[in-house]
Structures are given as C-alpha cells and as structure tokens.
Design a protein that fits this description.
The complex is a heterotrimer of chains A (about 260), B (about 220) and C (about 220). Chain B is an all-alpha fold and about 220 residues long. Chain B is built from nine helices and no strands. Chain C is mainly alpha-helical. Chain C has one domain: MetI-like (MetI-like fold), CATH 1.10.3720.10. In chain C, helix 5 crosses helix 7 and helix 7 packs antiparallel against helix 9. The chains are: A alpha/beta (about 260), B mainly alpha (about 220), C mainly alpha (about 220). At the B-C interface, helix 4, helix 7, helix 8 and helix 9 of B face helix 3, helix 4, helix 7, helix 8 and helix 9 of C.
Chain lengths: ~260, ~220, ~220
C-alpha cells in the first residue's frame, strides 16, 4: 500500500500511530472473516469503520484488544505487537476501552459500581478512589444522578452512556466502539452520539464501527469502508462521502440512501 | 471380608420379575397420569371458578407432599374410605397416579400458559375460533415445552416406584431387600439392586438430556 | 366416620420430635449438598480435563438411581465396606448429600452457562483475569438465576428426608407411621402429617419465588 493512498488529506496524521494493522487475517473455520487488513490509527483521530453487516468491521475491533486471535498479519498497539501471553494481553486491554453493541453492563451492579469495577478489580484502586473516579465519569456522560440505579432501571441510551463511562474510567489511550447505537431506540441514539462527539472533541483516539453515516461524516477523521473482509477504500470523510473512488463504496452508500 | 456375588445370579428370576413390575408400574402410572393431568389442567384453566379452585388445591397439595407419605396414606386410608380391599400393587399404583397427575397437570398448564397472548390474538384475527386457536396454534407450540418436562417426570417416576416397596409391592427394591433379608448377603444384593436401577435409569436420564436439547425453545 | 384428633394432641411431643428431626435433616442436608454441589459444578466447568467425565458419570448416575436405594445402600452396605457403624441420621445425611449434590451441581452449571458470553467479553475488555470474571461477574449473576431452582431443590430435599424413614430415622414420616399403626387412627395421623409437610413445603417454594421476583433483574443481562 503506497503512502499517499493511506495518508493524503489526513489532518492528524502527524501524531504518533496508536494502532497499526498490517495484513491482518482472521478465519472462522473455512470462513475468512478478514483477509489482509492494512490500517493506521493515529493519536487523537476518530477512525470510522463502515460497510455492510458481516463485512468484518466488528471482527477487526475484537481482534484489536485480543478478544479474538488473528491467523495472519500484525496488530501493533503503541509500537508493540499485541502480546500472546494472557497476563500481558490483560495489561494492554486496560489501555483500550471497549463499548459493545449490547451494552453488557453488569446487571448485579449499580451504575456507579459498574464504572468503578474496572479501577477496583483490575487497577487495584481503593474503593474510595475508584468510586470518586466513577462519579466523575458518570458526570462526564451526564448521568451523575443515576449512580445508585441498577442497569434494569435505565433506558438503553443511559445504559450505553454508563458503558462508555465504564470504559473511560480505565483512562484508556484509545476507545473501541462496536456499533454502539445499533441496539438503541431512535430517540436515544442522539444522546450517545453526543457523548462520543464530546470525547472526540477532547482529543480521544477512537475506532468506531458504525452505521451512523451522519456521525461518521461529521466526526470521523478517517473512514475505512469494509466489504467481505477487506478494506475496499479508505480516506478522509470528504473523499468517501462526496467523491468515492470505488464502485463498492458508491454501492454501499447508495443502498443506505446516502445523498451527501 | 468375603463377598459371594453368586447370590445375585441365583435369584435372577425373582429380580427379573421384580424389574418387570417396576417397569410395568412406570408405564401404567404414566398411561393414567397423562390423560388425568390434561383433564386437571383443563379444569384449572377453563372450568367454572369453584372447580378451578378445587383443581388448583389438588395440584398444589400433592406437589407439596412427600410421595412416600401418599403411599402410606393410600395403604392405610384408601381401604377405610372406599371400603375396598385393594392389593398392594393397586394401592401403590393409585398413590403414584395421584402424585404424577398433579405434576403433569402443572406441566400442561405451564406449557399452555407459556405461549404468548399475541399468538392467540393473531390466530383469532385470522378468524379462528378459540378452540381452533388452541388446537392449531397454542398446543403445537406448547408441546415443545411440555415434552422435555414430561420426559424428566418419567425418569423421576421410574425412580419413585421404589417407594411403593414400603407397602410390600413386589417391585425391584422390595424384592431385592427381601432376598437380602433371607440370604444376609447385604452388600451384594443392595449393590445389585443399585446396579439394575442404574442400568435402566442411566439411558433414560441421557434420553431426557437429548430431548431437552432437541426441543430447546429459542425465542 | 368419626374423627378423633385427640390422638394428635396426646402424642404431640412424639410427633414434634419427628418434626424437629425432619427440619434438622432438611437444613443440614440442604446446606451440605449445596456446598458439595457447588464444588462439583466448579470441577465440571473449570476442572482438569480428565476429571470431567468422572464428574458427569457421578451426576448422571445420581439422576438414574432412586434416593431410597442410595439411602438403603449407605446405611446397610457402606458400613460393611468402610468398616464403620453409622447412626441412621448420619447415613441419611450422607446419602441425601451424595444424591442431592448432583442435582445442585447441575443447577449451578446451568446457571453459570446461562450468563451471556458478552458479559465475560466485557469483563475481558476491562482487563480482568478468568478468575476475576468468574468471581465478580459470572457467579453473582448466576447465583441470582439459580434461585428458583434452588428453591425447588430445597423442597425436594424436605420431601426426600421422608424417605429416610425407611432406614429408621425417627423423623416425621417414621413417627407418623408408627403412631398410625399403633393407634389404629391412620386418617387422623396422616392428615396431620400431610398438613405439617404442606406447611413446611408450600412457604419454601412460594417464598423463594417471591424473593426471586424481587431480585431477578440483578441477573438479567
């Protein structure tokens, strides 16, 4: 892959590379989920992965923090290849926050305890320190008043914001979002996207798998279009949404009714 | 310690006959308790209110009593109440039927109730009668939930037939313990008894597992 | 038919001691089988590979053999092999535990497996270890989900203690049968026993269900 194709128009390309994917291959039995992914994520960038369902976007995200192993290629995080050792991998995971499509809040814990769980159990913070940090993070996502509530008493949008706070409480270097709004009612999608926009404005490095094209267009710094386990096109949002260079990208966007 | 396992072989005919009785009791009980269970479930679901309450009380009472107590009760009390001199086998069968009917009734009721209201409404919106909706829409779906429960009730029943040994029904547990008492080969006979139950019960337990996977309801 | 319930009032302490033994045996065997079953399930889920077939064999065997057979074998045959004598109560406690622990283990396993894999994934993403995930994320939710099944297991335990009458444990069933035979008033005696068992069992199932409804959301991911 030549440099100009991956870097032209990349405003934040000057920052250090946080995640570097080179020739990443992932197989499930006979099915090739990823066949040779090359992609860079720079510090402070919002990289959006778009494309049809089953094209490999979420798989790449799960490979990024080692929830799935890869069969070929390399994934480097902050200049070091992802470790295979379970203990070292856990240390890497603490520096990547992840937000899931189905929230995956822990139902037996209050909102505050959900957010404090990582700092307590993994970072070994004292309860007071963990709770203080959790309160701050809940306030950040606008849910300070929901601290004592259990997940079952929260709306989908609120649950997802707590999940974002839970990931932020680990003070990660990068946030991975796996279709964070796909399971939400239309009226609560906005509140989650707003929180994500606010994070982007603060300079958080983010990799976002999304079907929200408006968000990708407005907030994304770099867009990668997936199809059948490959990146068919990547570039700045202006290129992808206004002047796509491949037929696949045009097809995908027109299927979504994207008009620019 | 010396063990004499030949005692088991010497009494093979008696043990075989007793095993036959155990199996017969299981089949006979289920054959009666399924239709009875459906009837009681129907009474609980659709009957006139006082009858409904009566059916519910019966089910709740017998599900909350130890079966062995029902067996003793049938042995001592049924002859007084009915004035009939019932054989131990008939008495044991009656006790088992009373017990299993209550469980089956609950199984059928829960199975039918587990089908969402929307299914009946959708069927009636197509112009079906209530009875048609029950027969063509509710029951086929309910059956998937009922079958695995019936199967595990079956295994429980197979094991529970051993309890009628306390009123001298000549099934496997009773006969094995009789031979033990006559021959004083305690360990051999009791182990043989356990082994026969295991040989018969183990495949049944596995079959239940298979059915539970086969009929697993995914929504 | 005339009923004369004075047979109950006249032998209240005789029957009462039976009730006490029933309760004691229920609580003890309920507790021991729960603890034992918990460990059996942990072995089945997370134990070494060679151990799993043995654990499965034990569990399925207990599902195949009647309690009566287990109790009788424990009381009469086990002492011959082990060379020790056991009180009927002790034999009942051991037999019931061995039998019921298998059921408890199945409940624990089903509860653990019912927790969605997404929950473990979320915990992994936070950097938790396997042990931390089991202890802090999976088990608490699984325990909530197991409640109704544990409720019915407790009621099965109480019912199974009645079978200990066969090995001469002087619990309620045994005392009732003795009294019924001696007094020639089986209707009164057994009606009383039925009432007592029902009063013990019904609140257990109902109480657990009610409690579960209140906490169910803590296990619903």
């Amino acid at each position: 892959m030549n440099k100009s194709a991956t870097q032209s128009g990349r405003t934040k390309a000057g920052g250090i590379t946080i995640i570097r994917y080179r020739g990443v291959v992932k197989r499930y039995g006979d099915f090739q989920a990823l066949s040779g992914i090359d992609l860079d994520v720079h510090a402070g960038e919002v990289v959006c992965l778009i494309g049809p369902s089953g094209s490999g976007k979420s798989t790449l995200l799960r490979c990024t923090n080692g929830l799935e192993s890869i069969e070929g290629g390399d994934i480097e995080f902050e200049g070091t290849a992802l470790p295979r050792d379970e203990r070292e991998l856990r240390a890497v995971r603490t520096r990547m926050g992840m937000v899931f499509q189905s929230f995956e809040l822990f139902p037996h814990l209050t909102a505050l305890a959900n957010v404090a769980e990582g700092p307590r159990t993994v970072l070994r913070k004292h309860a007071a320190e963990a709770n203080r940090r959790a309160s701050a993070m809940l306030a950040k996502v606008g849910l300070a008043d929901k601290a004592p509530n259990y997940p079952s008493a929260l709306s989908g949008g609120q649950q997802q914001r707590v999940a974002i706070a839970r990931a932020l409480a680990m003070e990660p270097d990068v946030m991975l979002f796996d279709e964070p709004t796909s399971a939400l009612d239309p009226e609560t999608i906005g509140e989650v996207l707003n929180v994500m926009k606010q994070l982007a404005d603060e300079g958080m490095t983010m990799v976002v798998v999304t079907h929200e094209m408006t968000f990708a267009r407005r907030v994304g710094d770099w867009i990668a279009v997936f199809d059948a386990g490959r990146i068919v096109e990547q570039g700045p949002p202006e290129q992808i949404f206004d002047a796509p260079t491949t037929e696949r990208t045009r097809d995908f966007l027109s299927h979504l009714g994207w008009t620019g | 310690m010396t063990f004499d396992w030949s005692v088991v072989w010497q009494h093979r005919d008696a043990l075989m006959a007793a095993t036959g009785t155990t199996i017969l009791l299981t089949f006979a009980t289920m054959a009666i308790a399924v239709p009875c269970g459906i009837m009681v479930a129907a009474l609980r679901l659709y009957a006139w209110k006082p009858v409904r309450a009566l059916a519910t009380s019966y089910v709740e009472l017998f599900r909350n009593l130890p079966l062995i107590l029902v067996v003793y009760w049938a042995f001592y009390v049924l002859p007084i109440m009915t004035g009939l001199g019932l054989s131990p086998l008939a008495t044991g069968l009656a006790a088992l039927v009373l017990n299993v009917t209550a469980y089956n009734a609950e199984t059928f009721r829960a199975g039918i109730n587990s089908i969402r209201r929307g299914q009946v409404e959708a069927a009636m919106a197509l112009g079906m009668s209530r009875l048609q909706a029950l027969r063509r829409v509710v029951l086929p779906q309910a059956l998937r939930r009922i079958m695995p429960v019936l199967a595990s009730t079956w295994v429980s029943l197979f094991k529970d037939t051993s309890l009628v040994s306390v009123i001298a029904v000549t099934e496997l547990a009773y006969v094995a313990m009789q031979i033990r008492a006559q021959t004083f080969r305690v360990l051999e006979m009791l182990t043989a008894m356990a082994a026969i139950y295991w040989l018969l019960g183990y495949p049944q337990a596995k079959l239940v597992d298979w059915m539970q996977r086969r009929f697993a309801v995914t929504e | 038919m005339d009923f004369d319930f004075s047979v109950i009032t006249d032998h209240l302490s005789f029957l009462g001691s039976g009730i006490a033994i029933t309760l004691l045996l229920s609580v003890l065997s309920g507790t021991t089988s729960l603890i034992a079953g918990f460990f059996v399930a942990l072995f089945r889920l997370y134990g070494p590979r060679w151990l799993k077939p043995l654990v499965v064999l034990y569990i399925d065997s207990m599902r195949a053999i009647p309690v009566l057979v287990v109790l009788v074998w424990t009381f009469f045959a086990l002492p011959i092999i082990a060379g020790v004598t056991m009180s009927p109560f002790m034999a009942a406690l051991i037999g019931l535990t061995v039998h019921l622990a298998a059921y408890a283990a199945e409940i624990v396993r089903a509860g653990v497996e019912s927790v969605r894999p997404g929950q473990s994934r979320a915990a992994l993403a936070l950097g938790m270890s396997r042990a931390q995930i089991v202890r802090r994320i999976v088990m608490p939710q699984a325990l909530v989900r197991m409640l109704p099944a544990f409720g019915s297991l407790l009621s099965i335990t109480i019912k199974d203690t009645a079978i200990a009458s066969v090995i001469a444990v002087l619990e309620l069933m045994r005392q009732s049968e003795t009294l019924a035979g001696q007094s020639f008033q089986p209707i009164e005696v057994f009606s009383f026993a039925m009432l007592v068992y029902f009063l013990m069992l019904f609140p257990v199932t109902r109480g657990v269900d009610m409690f579960y409804r209140r906490v169910a959301h803590l296990g619903r991911s």
